Amino acid sequence: MDSFSRLLWWLFASSAGARTRGEIVAAIREEPRNAQQLALALRLDYSTVRHHLRVLQENRLVESSGEHYGQVYALTAMVEARWEELETIRQRHRAREGRP
């Protein structure tokens, strides 16, 4: 397992907020969005979304363009290239939680 795989496991299966981060990256993959759009689409608190976006950006999984509140987030090329692996991790995490 390489370091990027370990990072994916930590962010999307092992740490608090893993499920929320998974929902955020899935929504961004559908369509690049800003934090407000994500909060509305996922029915999450805006500050929660901002926190997770910060974590994802610090770990180079998402990148943003634009200014402050209008920043639009998209997945990095590395995440896109390893999307199948990320989905497998998310599925295993959901199964452990007893969710579909």
Secondary-structure topology with pairs:
Layout: H1 3-14, H2 18-30, H3 35-42, H4 46-58, E1 62-65, E2 72-75, H5 77-81, H6 83-96
Antiparallel strand pairs: 1-2
Helix pairs in contact: 1-2, 1-6, 3-4
**How large is the share of residues in beta strands?**
5-15%
Q: How does CATH name the architecture?
A: Orthogonal Bundle
- Unreliable residue stretches: none
Q: Compute the gyration radius: what is it? A: 13 Å
What is the count of β-strands? Answer: 2
Shape: globular
User: CATH H-level name... which superfamily?
Assistant: Winged helix-like DNA-binding domain superfamily/Winged helix DNA-binding domain
Q: How far apart are the first and last residues' alpha carbons, in Å?
A: 26 Å
Major sheet: arrangement of strands: 1-2
